[in-house]
């Protein structure tokens, strides 16, 4: 313990621009241990639970699948496979509502479970990973479908392959869990700290970094203590520090946490690797340990089920694909009818339109809010240019300028104000006295820009295909004309060759005719 304490005694902390203090409401759910949930009779497993290309189904409808069996393979570098969360029968591949701000439908594998929860044959543990080729370890993490479990769901194997052109010196483990109500990482650190450190050790080995910094907000004293105890039992304390940070939303944002712990600023439109840093969530570290040391793919996660509308809020270990309604039922159902059912937290989460929407790798919370917790904001009023949004913005943007241009659908101008640096934390909307749903405008603008860029790419691809087709047709016509010319030349040559003996015979006959005439006379 003395060693662990000494590691953080003299560390300087920085601050980021803006941020807000809001009630954390974590005591609703963080008092009870993580509990397993009864196996659902039906699992709805989205084929894309990550940033990047969707996975491609590799099993047939009607086929029996086993827990941990890959049912969809990645289709690109930035992609991730999907595994069966339990054993049963794949009964359909069909569109189903998935957790998304737009409430969109997406292809899902529908599995009717058989109750056996029987595992597929798993790859052997890589307990000797320090002696193995690092690429084999990264490939294992990729095979296991491990993605960032703190929100973005970026494939972890890609983040652990920053490239030889980037010198990574620091690995940051994000245990801040700054959003109100959510406590799944808190409970994970309290109960599985040793397993988290095994994952941290693996990532440290792959990246070859000089230091590991584990940032945890100071409103989680039990988690900080458990992590310190676990660290003290390892040989990692020579390069690892557990750093309690002030509770300020959104200190758990990737760029904000990097700023707090190192003082470094990730450049606009940049990534942490550009400043020598890789950032991973504590849940991701545990999933990496599962994949490498146990050969287990990512088929379940810890989810907070909370809000004052829930009878017994707590954290559950949940198979991927479990309907949100099953989690609510396991926690005793509703104490009262919620005004809003949210996937995620109250700040960055989004409304669930269907309680049967499935849990994915990115789902950290199912939140049922009462009218008192989430009162109707009333109609949005005109912006009064008070500047509170700019003061609160942790990305140091100008939210009112982005709002005006997004509302006017001036997508070029809104990008001039670094729209894509917005982390959609909701601080601006929280402090807006006019109750303008600012984040909705930013999400709309981003979606429109992405859509237009996609259409532009499609148009460019169509033009390229048309140009390629025209070039192919021209080439074929040229080849046809060349072939016709050759045929004509061959026929002409043949005709000429046939004409030569006839001409010679005629000439010979002509030459012989006068002699014959003379002899006759």
Automatic annotation (TrEMBL):
Cofactor: [4Fe-4S] cluster
Subcellular location: Cell inner membrane
Coiled coil: none
Keyword Secreted attached: no
UniProt cross-references to SUPFAM superfamilies, sorted A to Z: alpha-helical ferredoxin, Nqo1 FMN-binding domain-like
Record PROSITE patterns: 4FE4S_FER_1 (PS00198), 4FE4S_FER_2 (PS51379)
Stretches with biased composition (Polar residues): 510-521
Domain 4Fe-4S ferredoxin-type: 373-403, 412-442
EC number: 7.-.-.-
Top-level taxon in the UniProt lineage: Bacteria
Chain intervals for the UniProt region annotation (Disordered): 456-521
Gene Ontology molecular function: 4 iron, 4 sulfur cluster binding; electron transfer activity; metal ion binding
Keyword annotations from UniProtKB, A to Z: 4Fe-4S, Cell inner membrane, Cell membrane, Electron transport, Iron, Iron-sulfur, Membrane, Metal-binding, Repeat, Translocase, Transport
Principal location class: membrane
Entry membrane topology: Peripheral membrane protein
Binding, [4Fe-4S] cluster 2: 393, 422, 425, 428
Keyword DNA damage: no
Annotated protein name in UniProt: Ion-translocating oxidoreductase complex subunit C
């Amino acid at each position: 313990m003395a060693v662990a304490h000494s590691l953080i005694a003299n560390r300087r902390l920085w601050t980021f621009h803006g941020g807000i203090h809001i009630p954390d409401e974590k005591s609703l759910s963080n008092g009870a241990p993580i509990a397993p949930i009864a196996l659902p009779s039906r699992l709805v497993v989205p084929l894309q639970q990550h940033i990047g290309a969707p996975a491609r189904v590799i099993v047939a409808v009607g086929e029996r699948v086993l827990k941990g069996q890959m049912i969809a393979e990645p289709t690109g570098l930035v992609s991730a496979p999907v595994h069966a969360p339990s054993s049963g029968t794949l009964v359909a591949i069909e569109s189903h509502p998935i957790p998304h701000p737009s409430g969109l439908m997406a292809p899902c594998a529908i599995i009717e479970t058989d109750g056996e929860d029987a595992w597929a044959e798993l790859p052997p543990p890589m307990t000797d990973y320090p002696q193995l080729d690092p690429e084999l370890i990264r490939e294992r993490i990729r095979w296991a479908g491990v993605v960032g479990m703190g929100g973005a769901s970026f494939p972890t194997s890609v983040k652990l392959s920053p490239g030889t052109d980037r010198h990574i010196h620091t690995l940051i483990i994000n245990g801040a869990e700054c959003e109100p109500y959510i406590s799944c990482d808190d409970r994970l650190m309290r109960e599985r700290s040793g397993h988290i450190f095994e994952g941290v050790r693996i990532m440290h080995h792959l990246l070859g970094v000089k230091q590991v910094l584990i940032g945890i907000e100071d409103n989680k004293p039990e988690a900080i203590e458990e992590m310190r105890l676990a660290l003290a039992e390892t040989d990692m304390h020579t390069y690892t520090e557990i750093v309690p940070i002030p509770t300020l939303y959104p200190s758990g944002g990737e760029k904000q946490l990097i700023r707090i712990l190192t003082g470094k600023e990730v450049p606009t439109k940049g990534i942490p690797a550009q400043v020598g840093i890789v950032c991973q969530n504590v849940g991701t570290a545990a999933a990496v340990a599962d994949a490498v040391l146990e050969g287990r793919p990512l088929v379940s996660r810890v989810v907070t089920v909370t809000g004052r509308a829930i009878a017994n809020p707590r954290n559950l270990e949940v198979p991927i694909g479990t309907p949100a309604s099953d989690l609510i039922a396991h926690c005793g159902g509703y104490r009262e009818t919620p005004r809003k059912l949210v996937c995620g937290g109250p700040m960055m989460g989004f409304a669930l339109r269907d309680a049967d929407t499935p849990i994915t790798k990115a789902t950290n919370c199912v939140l049922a809010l009462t009218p008192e917790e989430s009162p109707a904001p009333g109609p949005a009023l005109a912006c009064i240019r008070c500047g509170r949004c700019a003061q609160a913005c942790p990305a140091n943007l100008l939210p009112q300028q982005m709002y005006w241009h997004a509302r006017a659908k001036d997508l070029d101008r809104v990008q001039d104000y670094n729209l894509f640096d917005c982390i959609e934390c909701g601080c601006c909307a929280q402090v807006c006295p006019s109750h303008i749903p600012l984040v909705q405008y930013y999400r709309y603008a981003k979606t429109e820009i992405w859509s237009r860029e996609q259409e532009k790419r499609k148009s460019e691809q169509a033009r390229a295909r048309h140009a390629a087709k025209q070039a192919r047709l021209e080439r074929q016509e040229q080849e046809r004309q060349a072939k016709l010319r050759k045929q004509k030349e061959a026929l002409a040559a043949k005709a000429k060759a046939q004409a030569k003996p006839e001409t010679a015979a005629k000439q010979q006959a002509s030459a012989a005719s006068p002699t014959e005439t003379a002899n006759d006379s």
